[in-house]
histidine kinase
Amino acid sequence: MMKGIRRQIVLQYFILVLLALLLIESIFLVAMQKYYYDSIYNYIESNSKNVIRYYNSSFIDSSNESSFISNLMYYLKLENTSLEILDTEGRVLALSSGFESDRVVQTSDVPQALKGSTGRWIGKDVITGESVMAVSTKIDYGNDNVYIARYVTSMERVNDALVDILVWSGLIVVGVLVLVFTISIGLANSIVRPINIITAASAEMAKGRFDVRIEGDYKYEIGELSSTLNYMAEEIVRSNQVKDDFISSISHELRTPLTSIKGWNETLESGGYDPEETKMGLKIISKETNRLIGLVEELLDFSKLQQNEMKMVKGTVSVREVLQEIMLNVWAKAEQKQIKLRLTADEEDYLILGDGNRLKQVFLNVIDNAIKFSHMNTWIDITIKREQDQVVVIVQDTGIGISEEHLERVKDRFYQVDHQHGGTGLGLAISQQLIELHGGTLQMESELGNGTTVTVKLPALTQEEHFESDIDPEVV
Ligand code: ATP
Ligand code: MG
């Protein structure tokens, strides 16, 4: 038994076609019947009229009425049709088939004929019970010589033919309906089957099996639906992967400093080291602790940004100052790889309205990335310039670069091209959001093997903002 959409489609098609066919069929049958009946009528009518016109007064010569009438009968008679001559009362005066006198005809064709037009009546013959057509015409030769010629013809043959047509066209209707039925089942199946497959697949996905894919190449909306679902599953798999990667890299990130802290702690505890060595051990413990604090802070920042709870203390910030400070901070790290940092800026300050610490965090990450992913003995170019009412910072390295497929994802949270370099993969995700909170943009361009360029654009401080922010640093 069919259910749902399938049934709906089949039923609707069926009813629609059935109604259309019934309409056409009835119009056709009515037209057929009218055509047959009219042609019989026209044949009789034209014949009798011609005869009456042609033989006009020559009939009157006969003084004897009965021979006059038999003359009339002779000239007017038609094959397959019985002819009656009536007087004005409708009484039968002569009859082509037998001698049945004194019958009075009362059908509507007679008064119609007396009025002057040709009368027509269709009905059942009283005697035989056959369905007949009567056509009556007035014959008026003046001086009370008024008669009616009444033809009666059986309609049985015509009706039989019409029934035949009805049966045949009925068969055609049934045939068409069967065809429509099969076609609409096929159509319904082509819709329902993929929907069932998609439903089954999405039920699997709902259970957490994201390796399931909807197979088959469907068209139109259904195709779109299935590819959207497949895409969704892929995205879920991918983000799960990113999450798993993150957990493993964060555990690793946490374990390394902890191991080192623990190791030095135990070493120092056992005692017997000279003050120099002790100092070095403590320094390492402190450095590793800072690294842990930094890591945890990054995670906290990230979750604050996620929940829109990042508080910013905005004031006038000199972008140039921020960058110079960062260059001092990363100098040691750059030195290790013999990387030189070069700052190009025309103006003194490049003022913007923002949170100095947060901006420092952004550029620290961008420049740290540049150092981290650069080769030994290279340059990193940092440029500040003004573009319309924006301050633009460009950090350009000639490092390992990022391939196109990774480039579109590096700003995703926890995303790292490889996990060898440490870190959490949160740096750019946080930077991007912080820059957006400042009303700016962060763009990355890169070519694998050739280096990366990060462009940060921030709205420059206007004169009025400059004035206001000096008085009251706003908290956003
Ligand atoms: P974190 O910043 O948390 O220490 P991270 O530096 O790995 O970790 P992001 O700053 O978000 O995280 O960078 C994400 C990834 O983008 C990096 O792991 C690296 O693969 C790629 N990437 C970022 N900047 C560069 C760059 N200048 N050159 C090459 N690859 C880069
Ligand atoms: Mg980073």
Remarks:
- The radius of gyration is 53 Å.
- Residues 128 and 151 are 16 Å apart (CA to CA).
- The pocket of magnesium ion (ligand 2) is lined by residues 365, 368-369, 423, 427 (CB under 6 Å).
